[in-house]
Design goal:
34% of the residues lie in helices and 25% in strands. The chain is an alpha/beta fold and 213 residues long. The N and C termini lie close together (4 Å). The chain contains seven helices and eight strands, in the order βαβαβββαβαβαβαα. Strands 3-7-6-4-8 form a five-stranded mixed barrel, surrounded by five helices.
Length: 213
Amino acid sequence: MSTRPATAPLLIACALGIEHLALRTGDRGGAGGPVTLLRTGMGPKAAERSVTRRLADPALAGAAVLATGFCAGLAPGMHPGDLVVAEETRDPDGTVPCVETDLLVKELVRAVPGRTVHTGPLTGSDHVVRGHERSDLLATGAIAVDMESAATLLSAVRAGERPVAAVRVVVDAPQHELVRIGTVRGGISAFRVLRSILPAFHEWHRSLLLPRR
């Protein structure tokens, strides 16, 4: 039987100020070790730099890393405010499997009852995906796309062995494209969902601290 350190920290990474605001205002206290919210900046390069630099801090040695924020849904029938739990993240630099995804789904359903939770591969892009690019990415098996999750998790595992996960809130979808987050109802809905899911992240983190046989 093995046990992770009782104070093993959790690093939650997002890109945008509005995502950081949602997470910060929704944080009602952790249920495991210490939690750090990190705003990486937009795009995969910014995420890589920010996460690598932050994980070089000895205080975050062995930290679990969870990437979150908004995403574009790729599959027909997705709606703003739906949730995506990545089974893996992928981009041209590599694929990273996620940990304890079943638990995340369970806790998200509890945190935001009535919201649809999708599971599957989450792919990375270096730009905002529009139009026909969605169907091209869907054909690869991915169910959603964002610009930072893949780079965040790949940087995290390169910095050392650790649990990683990615949870995203759909802010636009094939039938619900948004021009700007927060200017229409879908963006506001996604913001409210993101603000509500911190308890699920804390429970995921707490489960990682339990003894493993």
